[in-house]
Amino acid sequence: MNHLIKLIIFSFxxxxxxxxxxxxxxxxxxxxxxxxxxxxxxxxxxxxxLQGEDxxxxxxxxxxxxxxxxxxxxxxxxxxxxxxxxxxxxxxVFPRTESGLNTDHQxxxxxxxxxxxxxxxxxxxxxxxxxxxVNNNTALMGHSMGGGASFLAADSLCVNNNNQLKTIIGLAVxxxxxxxxSSIASALNVTIPALIISGSQDGVTPQxxxxxxxxxNLNSNYKTFISILGGGHCYFGNPNFFCDLGxxxxxxxxxxxxxxxxxxxxxxxxxxxxxTLKDDCEQQAxxxxxxxxxxxxxxxxxxxxxxxxxxxDDEGVLIATAIxxxxxxxxxxxxxTNANNISYVPIVSGEYTVEVFFSNGCPTLSDSYNxxxxxxxxxxxxxxxxxxxxxxxxxxxxxxxxxxxxxxxELVNINIYDVKGTIIKSLIxxxxxxxxxSIVWDATNNTGQPVxxxxxxxxxxxxxxxxxxxxxxxx
Length: 475
Hints:
alpha+beta, Rossmann fold, Immunoglobulin-like, nine-stranded mixed sheet
């Protein structure tokens, strides 16, 4: 059996084994009432049970990949993408607008932006084929012009704190600059994890003019630029007459095949999507490992990693120094039930660690802290008087810890005031048990909006006890 036949058979069985789901699709025209009922014809590809299985085999809900096509490139040119991702548990959405010669990149960006929310509504409709199948997590992805339009869409979504958009991915992304807009300028407002993949020999949208300026402007704490060595512009999709014609006239030195370029692309995209949309931190580690060890790419990356906490012992109270959105304490590598605050009061000796969770990225685990419990200190574990400590850190950005001591059970009221004496945030107004307590203020007001930098006053009221301290928010 010759090598080519072996390769085809291996690829067939590997693809079959990797497929968790079948693929189905439907078309729907959505209307954007804010733009004179603009019609947005859209193709939706979604997972279905494999042959012989029933609907129960559909495991939960599926993240969304919203894809923008390139200039004069039909959506079906990207069948290689939905064949790759939908069987692995993603829903892919392709708007078919702006497909002619006279394209409006801003309108295309608005189409993508509109569909981010509209597809969520589609998943809530019991008449939709994807009813109850839509996960909140969404990626914007696009090729060439569609990549540029994706950055125009992400600009507004990030500024307005959209909670669905988790990542943006550009394939040979082009600067979109019609009607006064600019993908390069829009990148300044994009703060979500971002991945740009380019071919090193792309003459249609050269890296130095298109992808690198966008990458450099990104304000994401996790952004990666990958250049596929010997790759071109059009090889991210299947053959297309207009794209391939433009490539032949402008690109030189392409030294890999379309299959090879797509293989490299999928190696990185599968890990990136599983990490950003499915919260799989093992895939993040795999992505990083592939970056370092692959000889098929060159790359740039800025990755502001989440902090690793150390543990401070404050008179028998263990405090995590890193501020996150959640905590889990461990004793001798075993979970401590209900120990989910930034501080913990140990009652036995042993090795303590704390895992800190973040809104963007994977949790981190502290080094262990050896705590020795002394029986003579029993009475010191409960405070003997009311006290509110100075917040930590101070000054702070974006959040700070307020610690306080309660000698007995009581109604606790903690408020944040601005310098004019106006209540900005009511942090606590509830009965609490005696002990050493703490709470995190994330510099938002009672409506959840970020407050401006400046001086603030925090006050605790417990029965007849009242105490105030000052803190400074910097930005």
